[in-house]
Every structure is written in structure tokens, then in C-alpha cells.
């Protein structure tokens, strides 16, 4: 039985995907029954073919392909829908999220007495990015934290672990992956945080720039603030016969 599904949303990461998959196997073998789901967001560099070739010797590896590029949140959502595990972990396909950090995400959710925890969010330390990217991220995180009070210093980290059914109850929207702590807390779940390391990007280049992130982030932040204010506050309890 699959306990943990590891979802990798990726686009044009042919130079990074195979070392990443090797690292996942090295980090997770013997720690949980797991599967790996690569969600190919319309790659044009042959990444999907590399994953398909690897699947012959790795029965726990799966490939999902988008017919239209949908971005990171769409990739995560497609992977979670397909997942067989009750716990899902995500990490980016560019190799910047070290796979050896994955047990920090799923072991707390598999532990006895952890039923109240819905999300374990990775928090990057020692970020290996350009100064402009780090400054833009710091500003965005400060603004989001002030507006949502989500008690999370780094929501942009791709390393996250969460309960599948709880995630699927969240309202889906593009870029929702950056607001998971606030959305899980909105539904009454506890959110745990763990420090994780960070690496320089391997091959290729990022699919997004700071201007794109800033523009969509401002619109999304307003939408998430609205969602938090409109959350359901009543909780139903079924009564037995009197």
C-alpha cells in the first residue's frame, strides 16, 4: 500500500529530472512505501521521454502529462488527484529542493498522534538564488505574512508535505501553492514548519521572472484575503437518537 506520494511539477527539466529521481530513491527507500509522480507541464525538451524510459525499471514511478501548460499549482493539483498515498509531498523539478529533506515532511504526518497536523511546510535556509530573486521573495513573503498572518516566513519553498484529502478540499486557483499555510489553517488544520536546505539550480533556467511573480502575487493575495474572510465557521456534528 502506498503511504506517501511524491509529486514533482516540472517543465523542461530534462537536465535535472533523472538526478532528482535518483536522490528521491536514495532518501526515501526504507522510510515509507512511496510512489513518485512527475507531472510534465508540456515540456518541449524531451523530459517526459526520459521519465518514461526510467519507468521500466521503477514500478513506483508514474508520469502525468498536461495537454496545455498550466503552471506549478496546476501541476501539483494534477499530481495530487492522481496520488494513491494519503500523504503527499511536493518538490520542484529544478533540483534546488534537496530530496534528502523529504523525510522531514512525511514522517511527522505518518507519526502517531499527528492527526491535527494538515501541512508540514519547508522553510529554506541558505538560499542559493540571485540577490534580486532573494530580495523579491523577501518582500513578497513580508507582505503576505502581514496580510494573512499565516505565521510562515517562506511560502515559496516547493518542499511541502500534506494530507491528500485535506488538500483536495481546498479551493483551487492558479498559484495556490504559495498560500497553502493560510488555506490549511483556514480549514482548521495545524501547520508545522521545518527548516530545509537549498541548492543552486542545476541545468536550464527558471520558467518565471520576478515581474511575473509580483504581478500575479498581488492579485492572488487579495483573493486569498477574501477567501479567509468568507470561510465557513460552523462545524456540523451528527446527533444520535435520543
UniProtKB/TrEMBL annotation:
Residues 5-167 form the Glycosyltransferase 2-like domain. Gene3D superfamilies: Spore Coat Polysaccharide Biosynthesis Protein SpsA, Chain A (3.90.550.10). Signal peptide: none annotated. GO terms for biological process: lipopolysaccharide biosynthetic process. It holds the Pfam family Glycos_transf_2. GO terms for molecular function: undecaprenyl-phosphate 4-deoxy-4-formamido-L-arabinose transferase activity. InterPro entries: Glyco_trans_2-like, Glycosyltransferase_2, Nucleotide-diphossugar_trans. Keywords: Cell membrane, Glycosyltransferase, Lipopolysaccharide biosynthesis, Membrane, Transferase, Transmembrane, Transmembrane helix. The keyword Cytoplasm does not apply. GO terms for cellular component: plasma membrane. This is Dolichol-phosphate mannosyltransferase. It comes from Albidovulum denitrificans.
Amino acid at each position: 500500500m502506498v503511504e506517501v506520494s511524491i509529486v514533482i511539477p516540472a517543465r523542461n527539466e530534462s537536465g535535472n529530472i533523472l538526478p532528482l529521481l535518483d536522490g528521491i530513491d536514495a532518501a526515501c527507500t526504507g522510510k515509507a512505501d512511496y510512489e513518485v509522480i512527475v507531472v510534465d507541464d508540456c515540456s518541449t525538451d524531451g523530459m517526459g521521454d526520459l521519465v518514461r524510459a526510467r519507468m521500466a525499471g521503477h514500478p513506483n514511478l508514474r508520469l502525468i502529462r498536461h495537454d496545455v501548460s498550466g503552471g506549478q499549482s496546476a501541476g501539483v493539483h494534477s499530481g495530487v488527484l492522481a496520488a494513491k498515498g494519503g500523504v503527499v509531498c511536493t518538490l520542484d523539478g529544478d533540483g534546488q529542493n534537496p530530496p534528502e529533506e523529504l523525510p522531514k515532511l512525511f514522517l511527522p504526518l505518518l507519526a502517531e498522534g499527528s492527526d491535527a497536523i494538515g501541512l508540514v511546510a519547508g522553510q529554506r535556509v541558505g538560499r542559493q538564488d540571485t540577490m534580486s530573486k532573494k530580495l523579491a521573495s523577501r518582500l513578497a513573503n513580508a507582505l503576505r505574512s502581514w496580510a494573512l498572518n499565516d505565521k510562515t516566513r517562506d511560502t515559496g519553498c516547493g518542499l511541502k508535505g500534506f494530507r491528500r484529502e485535506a488538500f483536495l478540499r481546498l479551493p483551487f486557483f492558479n498559484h495556490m501553492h504559495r498560500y497553502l499555510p493560510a488555506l490549511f489553517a483556514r480549514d482548521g488544520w495545524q501547520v508545522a514548519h521545518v527548516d530545509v536546505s537549498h541548492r543552486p539550480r542545476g541545468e536550464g533556467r527558471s520558467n518565471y521572472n520576478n515581474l511575473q511573480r509580483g504581478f500575479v502575487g498581488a492579485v492572488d493575495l487579495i483573493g486569498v484575503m477574501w477567501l479567509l474572510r468568507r470561510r465557513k465557521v460552523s462545524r456540523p456534528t451528527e446527533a444520535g437518537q435520543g
